[in-house]
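Hi X.,

You mentioned you wanted examples for the new student's onboarding notes, showing what a folding record looks like when two proteins sit in one file. Here is a clean example. The first protein comes first, with its sequence line followed by its structure tokens.
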Amino acid sequence: MAKEIGCFDIGMYCDFKAQAATMEELLAIVRVHAREVHDLDELPADILEKIHERVRDVPSAAGDPGHTNPIQRIEAVQSLEDLLAPTHVVVGLRRICDTHRRLRAASTPHARAGVVALFVGDAGTGRLNAAEAVANELGLDLYRVDVAAVATKYGGEPAENLHRALDDTEAVGAAVLFFHGTDSIFGARTEGKDDHLRHATLSIDSLIGRLEAYEGVTILTAHPEDDIDPELTRRLRFVVNFHLTD
């Protein structure tokens, strides 16, 4: 059995959910998420108490017994027709679906062109529901990839970690991949010439290229206040702003 907790479980309007083999590993994942998404350097005592009270035992992920599972398949039940979202969001989602269909019809085994989108909004603005609607509309499976959990599982450079996660998800074929917490990877790069910075830049550029070649739909997420790398937004086909009203 594994340990599982989600932000909703402790009264926070966020779709984050973590699973780990032990309570210690679970808290490590939660702390990374709290720091990167909720700006909490330390978990308050009341939140820690709720976590310990409401954590649940669940079966370990298949193929990864007793370890953190950063990739979770989500049943896509939300439809575009019933999605409660501003008109510009629904229009953006329909454009994503139409573009994916057109590219799939025109692609060849040697020239695949995927759709990469950025969903900008705070927790609770419906980004995961929107991803469900896209998957439902296209008849594709939906996978949620928790970037913080990927980092805990693999260690190393963030961009390289995401490459490993993509290795795991590409085996299922075309799908909708919803990456939660990508701001930690695609933050604006500081000018500089040291070897570490050049390596990080090349890793991120390579990652963007791989996402563009994936045959499914890739959805990255960010908060409105995040300082996202301009190179990323320049290369994206779609940026959907969930925090704006019509």
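Then the second protein repeats the pattern, sequence line and then tokens:
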Amino acid sequence: MPRHIVLQSILLAEHIYMDTATNKRVMTGTFNSISVSQFPTEIGGMTSLYMCLRDIEPSDAITIEFVDSSANSVLFEQGAIKIGGLPEPVEIVTTIDKIKITHAGAYTFDVFTNGNRFLGAFRLTV
């Protein structure tokens, strides 16, 4: 039977850190939409994406694409996040580089494993 990696959760936040006393992730400023006064604008820089995955192997790699849903075009790709020997479930926190947004609409952070298998998406409305 083929193995199925599960994207258990995905969040976008302004700040994510590990509380060493409790070994818990603390996320502040979670959001799924942003309001801007003009275009073009930029998102990212201080924004982080949190993912929790199950049934993942040390040899697996994760790729994130930021997609303009209206044009179905990839605006940003962060590839080959190596899993290594992390214990299950695997928690990944990655900082999102600045991404230029030219118009209002729906955008998604699409998550893939090993270059091609779609695991899930996070929708951001601008």
